[in-house]
Amino acid sequence: MRICTSCSEHVAIYNDDIDKCPICGKSLESKLVDDNTESNTINVHIDFSYEECDCGNKLNYNEISCKQCGKLQEIENDSVDPKVKLRKERFKDILTLINDSDLCIKNLRRNIHNGSVNRILVEDFVAYIQIKLYELEKLTEKKLFKNISFNSDVIEKKEVENKISEIKEYIINIYKIYEELLILEAPYVWENAFTRLCNTVRNFLDVNKLIIFSIVANTLAEACENVELAQQKLDSASEEIDTLSNMLNIKALEEDFEMFKDGNLNIPVIMLMVLAGNTEHNQIDIKFNEVQFSAYRYFKDFLPNEFQYYNSLEAPILFKLASYKFMGMTSFIESKFIEKVKVVSELFEKAKDINVIKLKEFMNTYTSKYVYALEIVNDVTQDYILNFSYCKNEKMLVRNALNSYKDLSEGVYKDVSSLLIACAYIIDKKDINYEYILEWMGFPDKLEYLKNKKKLKLHKLTDGVEKILRHSAAHVDYYIDDINKMIILRNKISNRKDKEKIGEIEEIKYTYEEFYRVQLALQETIFSIMAGIDIFCANNYYDFDSFLLNVDKKVGDLSDKNLLEYTFPFYGIIDIHLEEILKDNKTILVVKGVSIERKDKELLEKCISCASPIVKKRNELDKIIIELVDDNNIKIGSVEIIFKYMKKYFEVNAEYKKYESLLSMMTTRINYEYNNDYIESVDNYGTKFISAILQWCLDLMEKLNETTNTINNKDIYANELTKIKKEFEYSINTINEFKSFVKDDRFLNHIESILNNFVNAINKKIEVKCNNSITNIYQADYLYQNAFYQVTNVFAALADNEKIGPLLNDSSNNIDNVKIKVGRNDPCPCGSGKKYKKCCLRK
C-alpha cells in the first residue's frame, strides 16, 4: 500500500505503480498496515490503467493531454478504464442492492410522513437500544474494508468473490436495522439517544456506500475523495457508539465507578462520574482524566485553548462541563442546547470587551445568588437522576417534574437571568443598578426584557418559561389525569386584578409529553446559561478566577447530610438519616437509608463509595456504618467502614493508592441479611487480599527485570530500583495492617517473608551496579530466584485452597530452605569472598 503523508493518512487506496498523490501532487510513501491493529482505518487496494508520456509523466487512463508537458495522447482510449470496468461488473449486484434499498427507504419515509405507515412506540427502549448496539458492534468487528485488495490481478479469484458476498450480506443487515429504526418511536425521555442511534446507523450505511463507490470509481482522485468521506463518517459513527454506551450506563447505574476526587464532591458535577465507566482500584486518576477530556471535546467549539490549559485550572471547569454534557446528551435537544450556550458565551464576551471592570464587579456581587441557584439545580438534578433511573410510575414522574418546575423558574432562572441582563446593560452602555437587577426587578419584567433583546438573541434564553406553570402552586390548581395522560391547570383566582398577573387563562391542558418538553426546555435553558458562564470564565480565567473559586468554596461548605444526599440516590437509596454515636471510645457515624428497588448484596458493596465526600471533612471519625432497609422496613444489611483506610487513600501518592483502596475494601465488613439462602464464604487467610498483592508484585518483578536488563547508567539504575523497592516495602506495610483482620495470619507472614527477600535482592542489585560487588551478584540472584520460586508456590496454593495448609506446614517451603545451584568456581553466596568449592560447598 502507498499513502500520501501530506494528505490524510487514511487515504490508502493508491496503486503501487503511481508515484505522486493525485490530490496534492507530492510523492507517495510505501506503508505496511498490520491486520491485527485495532484502528478503524479504511485500507482498500485498487489499481488503474495509465499511460506514460514521452516526458516520463504518468497519465490517467482517460486523460487526453499530459499535465506536465501538454502533449496530447496519441492513443484514443475507451471512456472507461478496463480495470474499473471489471470492478463495476463484479460489484454490479451490490450497486443494484444499494440503489433498490435507498429507494425503499425513501418510500418508507414518505409513507411515514403522510401517515400511511404508523410508527411503533418502543416500550423497553433501553433493552432495545442495547440489542441494536450489540448488533452494530458485531458488524463493525468484521472490519471488512481493512487491507483488502480489488486489484485487477486478483478480482477474479474465489476469495475475492467470497469477500464480495460477505460485503453484500453486511450491507443488507445494516439496511435492515435502519429500516427497522425508521418505523419505531422512542419514549420522549430517550429521544436524544434514539436520534443518535439512527444517525449512527445512517453513518455506517454511508460509510459502506462510499467505500463501494470508491472501489468502482472511474478515477483515482474520485476514489480517494470517497474514502476520505467514508473515514470521517466511520470515525463519527464509532464515537457515537461510545456515547450511546455511556448514555445507557446512566439508566442502568450498575457500573462500579468512583464518584469523588480527593474526598470532595464537586457541585454541580455529581453526574459526571456516571460517564467514567468501570473503575478498578488503580484507575481513578485515568478515569477522571477521560471524563474531563470527553467534556473538553464535547464543548471544543467554545474552548479555543488546549486541553492541558483547562485541565490545569484550579477551579474544576471541566468537571462542571461534564455535568452539562451529561444533561445535554440525556435530556435536551442537543442542537438547541449548544445554540443557547453559544448565545450566552458570545454575550459575555461582548460585555467583557466593552467594560470588563463592570462585569467583574457585578459577578462578584452576584456570587451568593449564583451559589443558591447551583444548589437548587443540584436538587433538581438529583431528583431527575432518581426518577429517571428508578421511577416506574409515569404519573409520579410528571408530578415530580411539575413540583420542580417552580423551583427552577423562581429559584434559578430568575437569578441567573440577572447576569444576562447585566451583560446587556453593559453592551448598551447603561448604568447598572446592582440592587435593582438582583433584588427588585420582577420576574415578569426580566422575562419581558430578555424577550425583547432579539438583536443579542436573548429571546432564545426564555425558552421553557411559561407563566401558568410558574404559578402552579400559588395561583393555579392542577390535576393529573393519568388515564388520558393529561395535566389540567385551572385558574383558582376570581379577582380580575390578580388574574391579570398570570393572564386571562381559566384552564389550560398539557399532554404528558407537552409538559415534559416544556419542563425540559426550561432545564435546557438554565443549564445552557450556566454552561455558557463557566465556559466564558474558563476562557478568561485570570480575570474571573476569584468568582469561580468563591463559588466553589461556598458550594463545597455543605453539611454531611447534604453531601450524602447527593450520592446515595445514585443507587436508589433515599430517606437518608445520620446519627453520630460513641461506642468503645470510638466515634461512629451511622447512615440509615431506604433502598427503592435493589435488595442484593452488591448494593451494599457499591454504596461504600457514597460515604467518600465526608472523608476529608470529618477527621475525628473512626467508623462509618451504613444500614439499609427496603421500602417495607425489612433490613437488607449493613456496611462497616474503617474510616482511616478510606481517608488514607486520598492522602497517599498515586502509585500507592491501589494498596490503600484494597485495604479499605478488604477491611470493610459487609453483613447481608435480606436473603436467608445466602451463605458468606469464609476466608481465614485473606486469600483475596494476597492475590491482589501478589499480582501487583508480579508487575513490579516485570518492571525490575526490564530495568536491570536495559539501564546501564548507575544513578538512573539505582533511582529506578529504589522506587521499585519502596513499593515492595509499601506492600509489606499494607500486609502488616491487614493481619489483625484475618483469623490465621501465617499465610500473610509467609508472603511478607517473600517480599522482604525481594527488597533484600534489590539492595544487593543496587550494590552490585554501584560498587561492582561480584559477591553480591550471586547473593542478589540467590534471593531473587528463591523469592520468585516461592511466589509460584503461593499462586498454586491460591488456585487450590486445600494446598494452603500443607504449604504453611511444610518447612521445605521456608524461604531459607530453598536452594539454588551455584557453580563450584563461582563466588560463594554467603558473601565470604571465597570460591564456593572452598567455602560453603565443604560444609
Automatic annotation (TrEMBL):
| Coiled-coil features, chain-numbered ranges | 220-247
The superkingdom listed in its UniProt entry is: Bacteria
Q: Which Gene3D superfamilies match?
A: 3.10.450.50
Q: Which UniProt keywords apply?
A: Coiled coil
Q: What is this protein called?
A: Zinc chelation protein SecC
Q: Which organism is it from?
A: Clostridium botulinum
Taxonomic placement: Bacteria, Bacillati, Bacillota, Clostridia, Eubacteriales
